[in-house]
Fold each of these.
Amino acid sequence: MTEKFDYIIVGAGTAGCLLANRLSADPTKNVLLLEAGGKDNYHWIHIPVGYLYCIDNPRTDWRFRTEKEQGLNGRSLLYPRGKTLGGCSSINGMIYMRGQARDYDNWAKLTGDDDWLWPTCLDDFKAHEDNYRLDGSGETADKKHRGGGEWRVEKQRLSWEVLDSFALAAEQSGIQRTDDFNTGDNTGSGYFEVNQRSGWRWNTSKAFIRSIKNRPNLTVWTHAHVEKLTLEKDSDGQLACKGVTVLVEGVKKTVESNIETILSAGAINSPHILQLSGIGDPLDLKANGIEVQHNLSGVGKNLQDHLQLRTIFRVENVKTLNEKASTLLGKASIGLEYLLKRSGPMSMAPSQMGVFTKSSPEQEHSNIEFHVQPLSLEAFGDPLHPWPGMTVSVCNLNPTSRGTVKLKSSDPHQGPAIAPNYLTTAEDKQVAADSIRVARNIMAQQAMMQYKPTEIKPGQEHSTDEQLAKVAGDVGTTIFHPAGTTRMGHADDVESVVDSHLRVHGIRALRVVDAGIMPTITSGNTNSPTLMIAEKAARWIAGSI
C-alpha cells in the first residue's frame, strides 16, 4: 500500500530538520522526514571533540572520497558528509558563521530576487537564533542577533595562551580584532562562536526535532535511503514529482507527496538523487544507463569548496594540546575538566580561533579565513606530534575553481564521483601562495617570538609563487563545505538547476533546499547559511510561493 504525505523531505540534516519543524507547525499538513542514517544517539555526536570519532565512521558518515585531484598532486581526499539525524550538524566543526553581506547581495543580483539581499537574509538568520549575548538581558533581539530561537550560539569554554598571542600577532600585522564575526563583515581575529549548549554539541536534531517529535502530523523514518524520485506528467503535459522510492530498513517503499517533495540531502546527495531519477546532463545519464526524464545539464556542476592549507609550526615555552594529551595524567585531567565543568579540550571545536583578512592588498574584501589550533598532527586521524605545535590553516573563501558530482553507475547505493577540481585556476593558485605568506607574516610578529616558531609545513624552502602553489596541493585538504551543485538562477540560465524560490526548473512540486543551491559559496563556514536558506524556503513552501 502506497503511503501519502503532504510534504516529503529527503534528508534529516541541517536544512531538513528545520523544514520539518516549520512545515509540521501547520496541523493540517502531514510531513514525512526521511534520513538514510540512524538516530543521533551515538554518544560521540554530542561531546564536541567527538567529531574525531564520527568522521569516517559508517555509523555517522557517508564516507565519500574524492577522485584523484590534479591540483592536489594526485591525492584523493576523505570527504565527510553526515549520515545521521542532524546530518552534518552532528559531525561538523560547530562554528557559527553567517558569511559576508556581499555574498547574499551577489545572490540577489544573480537571481534578480531582492529576497536574497543581506537585510532579508539577516532576518532569516535571526528567526531561529538563540544567541548568548541576549541571555538575561530582557531583550529578545537587537539589530544583529536574537535570543530565544532554536539554534543556540555560545562562546567557547576555553582559552589558550598561544591562541591569544596569535590574535595579538595578527593585530601587529594590521588585522584588527573583532568580538563578532557575524555582522555582515567578518574581517578581524577572535575566538569562533559555536553551536553548543553548556559544553554539548547542539545539532539540528536537538534544536528543531526533539521538542516536536510527538506532533501527530510529523513522521520520521531513519535508515531510509531514497533511491529515486517518482516523476509523472500532469494532464497538461508538465512533468511533476509525485514522491519517492525509498529503501527503509531493507524494505522498498513508494511514498507519494500531495503537495511537494523537497530534496535536502546536501550538495553531494541531492544532485546524485536527481541524476538517479533521470534529471541532469543527458550524456552523463545515458552513459550510466539511466533514461533521461528531464534535461537539466547544471545538475552536479558548479561544485565549490573551501580548501584549507595546513601550515604547521613547532613552538617552545608554551603549552599546546600535543603535550597535554600525550600522558595518562594529562588525558585524565582533560576528561575530569569536561566531566566537572563541560570545558577544556573535550569541549573544543576542531578550530578555536578565526581570522578573516585579505590575501593581498589588491583584494577588495577579506577573501581568506584562518582556522587556528593549539595542536598539530600530520593528517586528520593521525596522532598528535610529540613536540609542542600549532596549526595555522587558511582557506580561500571565494575559489574560482569549479568541480562536479557525477554518477558512477545507476546503482543508488554506489556513491557518486566527486571531483572538486581544487587549485585548477590561476586565481586560486595565486591566493594559495599569498595566503601562506600571510600565515608566515603573522607568525613572524613580535607577539609570537617568545615561542620561537619553526615552520614544519610547508617549509621555508618553498618561497616562489610556483613553489607555494605546488606545495599547497600537498598540504591542502577539504574543510567540508561543498556547495553549488544545484545552484539557483534565472530560468534562461542553462546551468542553473532551481529558481530563486528553489523550485527545480521544469518540474512541478520539487524543490532543493540545501547548500547545493548556493550560486557562489559563502565567505565562511556553510552550516548556518544552510539553515538560513531553509528558513526562507519554509516560508515560501508554507505559503505556496
Amino acid sequence: MVRTRFAPSPTGFLHIGGVRTALYNWLYARSCGGQFILRIDDTDQTRNLEEALGPILEGFAWLGIDWDEGPGKEIEDTSYYQSQRDAYYQQAVEQLLNSGHAYRDFATSEEIQAEREMSRTEGRQTRYSRRWMGSTDAECERYRAEGRQEVIRLKMPSEGELVLSDLVRGDVTFSWADEQDHVIRRADGSCLYHLATVVDDHAFAISHVIRAEEHLSNTPRQIFISDALGYPRAEYAHLPYVAEPASKNKLSKRKLQKYLKDPEFARLQTEGEWIANQTHRSPDADVFNPVLVDFYRQIGFLPDAILNYLLLLGWSLDDSTELFTRQEMIEAFTLQRVNKSPASFDPAKLQSFQEKWFQRLDEKKKLALCVPYLQQAGLITSPPDCSLAPRLTAILAAAGDRIKIAGDVLRFAEFFVSDEALEYEKKPFAKRFRSAEVVDRLGRLRDCLAELDSFDVADCEATIREFVESEGIKIGEIIHALRVAVTGKATGVGMFETLEILGRESALYRIERAIRKSREAEA
C-alpha cells in the first residue's frame, strides 16, 4: 500500500511551501488509494514552540487535508511525536554500532575545527580523519578517563556512488567521497533528525518520501542508515521549493518587509490588516503574514481556493485547466507532472483563484462565511437576529464580485450601523454637499421618495429618474449626493439596490440627517 507522510516541526506556523508539500503527499496517497500520515518531528527541543503545534493541526483541519494516522488518530498505543520515540532511536544506534556502520567518537569541537582548517590550508576536501574514534572498549574507556564526551557518528563509505531514482528529478548521482561521518547521537544522548526520520519512516511503513528539495542532500546518509538497518528502501520525490514573488529565491516568512515592496503582496497584507483591525484583533507580525496559511484563514479565504492555487504552483495537467475540485485534483495528480524548477508565489494569482471560488458559492454558504466577521466587528448580535438572513442575502447579491473574501463584507458596514451611528467620509461629504442648490434639491428628492407606496428597486429607480427629468438635470448631479447621504461613502453597490436594502424609514432619515449636517456646517 502507498503510504506518504508529512512531518512538520512545531517551530512555527504553517508555511505556504510546507502546505504545498503536504498537499502533494495527500493527493498522491489519495490518488493511489493509499494512506497519508501526519507525524511531528520535534527532535530539536531547543527550537520547538509548544504554542505552534495547535495552529498546525488546526490549519490542516481547516484546509481539509485529513490524515489517516497521526495526532488525534492514533493506532493503538503508537506515538506520532519523535520526542516520545527515543527508545526506538537508541535501539537503532546500538544496531548500527554492532554492525560497524557507526562508531563512538571522542573528538572535541576544537579538534574537529582544527582538522577542517588544516584541510582548507592544504587545499583538500574536508573529511574527518576518525583520529579520536573509539575502536575498542579499552580506547573508549581511556578517552572517557580523559574527560572526553562521546558522540555517535556514521561510518560512511568513501568510495563509489549512490544513484537515486527520484520520482521528480530522475536519476541523481551522489559520490560517497563527498559525505561526512555525520553525527546521529549527541553527547547528551539525544538522537538527530537524520536517524529519527529513517527509523520512523520504516516504523510507519512509509512507501514514498515526498519532500522539499532542500532535503535532497540529506538523502545519501539516510539511505545509508536505512540500508545498514536492513530496511527496504522507500521511493523518493524531491519537490522544488516555493520561490519569492518574481524571484527564484526561496519564500521565507522572515522576509515580510522585503515582500511588501511587491505591490500585490503589499495590497494583500494591507487588506488583511484592515480586516483584522475591523474585527478588533491586533495583527502579530510573526503569524499575520501572507507567507503563513493562518493569515488566509483569519481574513476569510476559502480552503478550496488555496489548495487549488497550491496544486498549480509547480504542477499542471495541461495548458488550460485551472479550476479543480478536490476529487478532480485526486484523479489528475501524478508526480511525473511536477515541475523541477521553483515556482514563484504570486499573490495576485492566489487572489484570482479566491475570487473564482467565492463566486461559485451559493448565497447561503456566502452568508454563513460572512456572519462571523460581522459579529466580530460588533455590527450584528451573536446569535444574529432572525431578520438578518434576507437582509444580508440582499447585500451579498447587490455587492456581487465586490466581496472576494468573507472579510470583505465589513466594507459594507453602512448597512449594519444605526442611522445615527453612520459616519460620513469627510472628502466625499464636503465635495457633494458644498452647494446649497444640491442640498435643497436633495430635500425635494427626499419628499418624492417619501410618497412611494413600495420602496423596492424598480419604484426607487423610476421615482429618481422622473425627478431628474422634472428638475432638468443629469442623474449624476443628484445621485452622488444621495449615495453619500445614505451610506456616508462615495462608492458602493447600486444606488437603487442600496435604497431598497436600507428601507424607507432608514433611507429617508439618513437623507434628512445629511441635509441637517450640511446646513449646520454652513451656519
Amino acid sequence: MDVNEIQVIHKDWKGIICFNNRNECFRKDFPSEKGTIQIDNNRCIIFWENWEPDIFYRFYLDKNNNNNNNNNNNNNNNNNNNNNNNLEIISDGNFIHKTLFEDIYSKFKIFYNDKWLTSYWDIELYKQLILLNENDLKQKTVYFEIKQLENSIYQIDSILFFIFVENKNIFYPCKKDSIFTNISICKDGMNLKILLDVKNLIFILFEEKDDDIKTGNFNFVQNKIILKYDNGKEEIYFSNLYTNEMPLIEKRNQIYFHIPKSIIIGHQVLFSNITLINNKIYCTSIHYKKNPIKPEDIQFFIEDISIIDKKIFHHDHYESSLNIILELDCSPEKCFLEIFYGTKKWKVDLISFRIKEKSISAMTLFQNDYPLLKRWIKYYIEKGVQLFFLYYNAMCIPSIRESIEDLLKNVLNSNPNIEVHITQWNFKYWMNEGLPEKHHHAQTMAINDSLHILKNFSKYNLYNDLDEFIILPDKKVFNDLITENPLTDVFIFKNHFCKMGDKLISYNDFDDKFDLSKIILGNYWDTQREKNFVRLENINVMGIHVVYNRFSAQNIISRCFGEFLHVLNFKEKDREFLMYEYVV
C-alpha cells in the first residue's frame, strides 16, 4: 500500500505525517499517534484517535520575486526572537497549524500577480489560487469564492472578469459591474449553491454532480425567487433558504412544514436528517443489512467549535436504526458541519431548531391516508396532546400542503394553542434489499429522529398510526396516567382490530362517520403490535411496537394500560382478513 508524507507544523511540535489511500495516518516520529486525515485543497484536517482534531493550512512563498525575501527580512527584524523560531522552520508547501496562520502571515508579505498581498482577504484569495494551473487561462481579474454562505470578490486587473468556484476550478466570465451574492437552494433533494449578480439580475448555478454551469435571469417576488433559465425553463424557490419543493420551514396558520437535512449515497441514506438543537447535533440514519454504514468511520468537524462527545446508537434489527449524537462545547445559532466518510465529504449548513415546548406530543408517519389526520388530531387533542410532530412519507408538494391546511383549519382554529409540525420524509418505506423478510426503513428512521428531537421540547410522546385510537378508562386523559404513574417510562397499549360499522368507509368520510358505538371487534393481540405512550427522557432507541431497553442507561419501567382500536374497514385499504387471522 502506498504511503504519502506531508510536513506539518503544529503549535506544539513539527514533524511528518504519513498516510495511505484509506486516509489512515500517523506521526512518523511517534507512530502511536494515529488517526485519519482529510486534505482539501490547501486545508488539512487530522482526526486523532486520542486528541481533538487539528486543522492545518498549506503555506506557499513566491520564489520568483526576490523582493519577497528582502521584505520578509525587514519584517522579521521587528519581531522578537521567540517568534523568529517559528519563521525559521517555515518552508514552501508545508502545512501549518491554524493557530499559527495569522501569526506567520503577519510576518511575511506575499508578492502575487504584481501586487503585495497583505490583508486578510488577500490571503484568503491566495489560499484559493495557489493550487490552480494558471497557464490554462490567458488572464484573470476577479475571483469569486463560495465559502459557507459568505462571498468575497477580488479585482487584480481591470481587463477580463471571471468567477472562480471553490473545489471545482470553474471559471466563468462575468460583467465588469457585477455585484455578487450567493444563496443555498435545495433542488430535487440536493443542496446546491447559486450565485446572484444583483446588479444585472443574472444567476449562475453550479451543479454538484458535474461541472455544468446553468445561467439565466432571476427575480424576487415576496418570499420567492423565480429562475428563468437561458433555455426557457422556469423554476420557483421559496424562503431565504431556498428549495424548489417547499421552504425549509413554511408556516401555514398553526402548521409548520419542514425539509430535513439529508445526505444520500447511491441508493442508501447516510443521514435522513441532521438537526442542531442547543449544544447537540442529532444525525439520523439506519442500519442496512447489505453494505451497512460504518458509523465509526464517519468523521465530523466544525471549524472553531469542538465536538466534545459522540454517542452512537446502532441497532441491527428488522426494525433497525442508527443515531449519532454530537455534543458541542457551545450552543451556536448556526454552524457548518463537515462530514467525511470514505472518499466523500459534505458540508451541511445548520440553523438551531426551535419549537414551543409542550408537555405531551404525538408522532406518526403517514402518506395517502392523510385525510385521517382530522379525526386523529381531534381525538388526541381531547386526550391531552398539545403538539403533533408528523412525518409525510413522500414529497410534500404544494397541493398536499394546501389540502392538509384546509383539512385542519377548523380544528386548529378551535384550538389555538395546538401546533402541528410536518417533516417531508421522502424515503422508501421498506428497505428493499432483496432480503427474505421485510425490513423497515422510513418509519424507524422517523420514529428515532422524532425521539431525539422531541426530548428537547416535550416530556411524553405518543407513537401510533392514524387509524389507531387508544381507549383510556373512565374518561381519563394522558395527564391522569402521568400523575398516577410518575415512574413509568412506557405506557403500553395492546392492539385490538375492529371495524367501524359493517360498511367500507373512505378516508375523506371517516371524520364524519367516526362513531365508537358502531365498533365491531375482531382479533385481539396480547403480544406484538403494541403501541406506546412514552416518557422521552430515558429512551434512546425505539421500534414501531417496542422500546429497546438495552440502549438506555437506566432501567426502563414498562406497564400495560389497556388497548387501542385499530380500524380496518377503509375503501382505500380494506384489511378485513385481520379481523380473523393473526398475521404479523
Amino acid sequence: MATLRTRLTDKDERFGPQRRAALGEATTTGLAWCQRANMALAEAAADPASESMNKVRRWFASSVTTEEDLESVIRELSAGFKKVTATLNSNQLIFTDMPSLRGATGGQYLRLLNSYAFVFGGRYEKLPIVYIENAFFGPHGSPLPDKTLWALTVVHEITHIDASTKDHHCDNDGLRCGPMFDPDDAAENADSWAYFCADCANALTPSQINAAMVGWQSGAMPSPFLDRALAALCLCTAACAVPAQPAQENPMSQDHPATGLTPVSARRPGPPKVPAVRVGELRFEQARLSRKEAQGGQRCGYLAAYKGDTDEVAWRVRVYEVTYDPRLEGDVQDVFFAAMSLSADGRQILVDNEDGARYAVDIDGDHAVHVRR
C-alpha cells in the first residue's frame, strides 16, 4: 500500500476514519429524518389541521396554494420519501469523490470540485452513488452546524436520485414560496425536500428555519436570541485536503464511463459575498434574477443600480453571458461576481467574476465590456 501511494503521489487519504464515520452518521441521521417525514406526511394527509400539515405549508405552499394543491404535494412527497428512505436504509449507498476532477483548474469542473456533492440523478447508475467534494468537509459559509449540513446534503442528493428533484432554489437564495419562488418549483426542489424532512424531525432551530426561508445570504443568520424569541412566538400563537494532480484540459471530457452523461445535480456553496459600491445616490450590487424573470435563461451575471438604500431599481444590465450545458444542473454552472470596485476615473464599475474575467460597466448602465487583465 505504501509503495502504491508513493507511485500515485498520494499525500493524504480522501476519506479517512473520521470522515467515514461522519458520512455514516450523516446517513443514519438522514434516514431518521426521512422516517419522521413519512410519518408527518401520513398525519398531514389524515388531518389538515395538524402541525405536520403546517410544516408542509411552510416549505411547499404560498398564499394562493389550494387544498387540492397540498394533497397533490403530499402524494408526491410521500412517494419520493419512501424511495429515499429505502435507499438510505440499504447497504448499497456509496460515497466517493470524482478522481478526474482533482486536477480541475477552472470553469464548471472547478465549481464541481468545490461543491458539497453531486450525483448522476434519476437512477442512471446501477447503484446510488454520491460524489463528495471539497465543500462538504471544507469551508462552506453555511450557518448550519456541520453535522446538520452533512445530513441535509446527503438527503438533498438522494432526492435527486430517487425523486428526480431539481435545484431551483437553495437555502442561500431563500426557500419561502411566493412571487420569487413558485410552489410548483418548491415541490420538485431538492433543498425544500431536505429542509422539510429535517423540520419534521425537529432538527432545525426556529432561527435556522427563518434563515433558510429568507435566504442566509441576505444576512438572516441563526442566533440563540432569535431562537428563543421565535420559539416564544410559536408558543404564544399556538397555532461538502486533496493533493494537487496534473491539470487536465477537460477532466470530465469522457463524462460518466457507463452512461456518457454529465452529472445533473450539484449542491454548491452560496455565491461570494461582494460588498456594494456606492456612487452618489446609487448603490451598485450583484443581482440574481428569479426563475420567472429569467424565463429559463441566465439568472446570474447581472449588475443592478438601486436608488439609495431602497430596493427600487434604477437600471439593470447583464455584465457577461454564461453558456449552460443543458445536461448539467444550472446552479453549478452559474458564474457569480467575485469582486466589485469603482474605476479610478469614477465612471465605471469594475466587476471580476469567479472565472477570473474582468468587465467594466458604465455607471449609467449603457453597456458592459470585457477588460483584458
